[in-house]
Amino acid sequence: MPGFKAKTIKSVIRKKIDQWLETIEDIPLRERVAKNTIVTGGSITSMLLGEDVNDFDLYMRDHDTTLRLANYYVEKFISRKQKGIPTPMSVQDTDGRVKIVVKSAGIASSTGTEKPYEYFEGAPDSSAAAYIGDIIADPEKIEDTYQEIEEKALATEGESKNKYKPLFLTTNAITLSDKIQIVLRFYGEPDKIHENYDFVHCTCYWTSWNNELVLRPEALEAMLAKELKYIGSKYPLCSMVRVRKFVQRGWKINAGQILKMAMQISQLDLTNLSILEDQLTGVDTAYFLQLIQNLKDKDPEKVNAAYLIEIVDRIF
Q1: Residues 281/238, Cβ–Cβ less than 8 Å
Q2: 218-267 pLDDT, tens digit each
Q3: Whole-prediction pTM value?
Q4: Of 109, 140, 137, 120, nearest to 245 (Cα)?
Q5: Which of 102, 181, 273, 302 has the fewest Cβ atoms within 10 angstroms?
Q6: How distant, in Å, are the alpha carbons of 222, 229, 251 from that of 225?
C-alpha cells in the first residue's frame, strides 16, 4: 500500500479532529480544544508509510486545556453508570501533572474491568491487540482485535452508532473509541512534547490552530531507511525495550543508537523503586507489573542489582 501525500494526511487528520470535536458537548471546552490540539507520533508515520493507523495520539498545548479535558471525560465516564465501574475516580492536578486516579489500580474500562496496568502514551503505536485484549477483554480472548473489543464495549450500551466514547482511562491517557487517544502525561508546544519522545521518526506533527502539518526532514529520512535514530528521552529504559517492537516490524538500529540509550540509562539508579517504576511505565507488558509488585513487597534496603536480576529471571 503506497503512503499518503502530505496534503492527504493533513486532510485525514483535520477531518478526524473535527469529527471528534463535534462530540464534545461543552461548547467553551470544544472551542478551547479546537485551538490547542497537537497530533503527533505513530499515526503520521503510519500514513506516510502506507500502513494502518493504530490510533491518533492527541496532546494539548497547555495545562488548563489538558486539565479541563480530563475532567470532562472522567465525568462522562462516570455518568454512563456502567455496572462494575470502580469508584472513586478523579482527576489529580499536582505540580502541573494531570493524571486520572482510579482506586489503586490506575485504569478503568467501559466494560467494568479493572486491572493494575500503567500505560505510557508516549509510545506512539501502543494499541496492540494483545495489550488492549489484556486490559478490557476476557483474558482467554486476548487475540481479539482493537476494533472487535471496541465494538463489544459499545454494543453493551446500545451505543454502537455513537463515536468517540471513552473506552478506558489510565493515569496517563484517555482512550476513546474510533482510534483517538488523549494524552494527559505531557502537554505544551510540539518541541516540548517531543522532549519525551525517543525516536526521530515519530516527531512529525499537526497543529489544530493553523491546520499545519510539519514533516521534519530528519524524520522522513529515518522513515525512508526504516532506521531507528535515538534523539534522547526522559525514559531511555522504555526506549531500549521498545526497540524490540520496531525490529520485529523490519526497522534496523545501529550500535551507536543503542550506546546513546545505554549512556542515559547509566545515569539512572534503577534500584530506586520509584525511578524504576517510572522508567517502566512505557513498557506495555504485564510482566513488568509483576516485577514492580515483587519489588514493592521487598525491603528497599535489600533491593540491589543482584536481586533485580534474580526477580527478572524468575518472572521472564
Answers
A1: yes
A2: 999 999 999 999 998 888 998 898 898 899 989 999 999 999 999 999 99
A3: 0.74
A4: 120
A5: 302
A6: 5, 10, 8
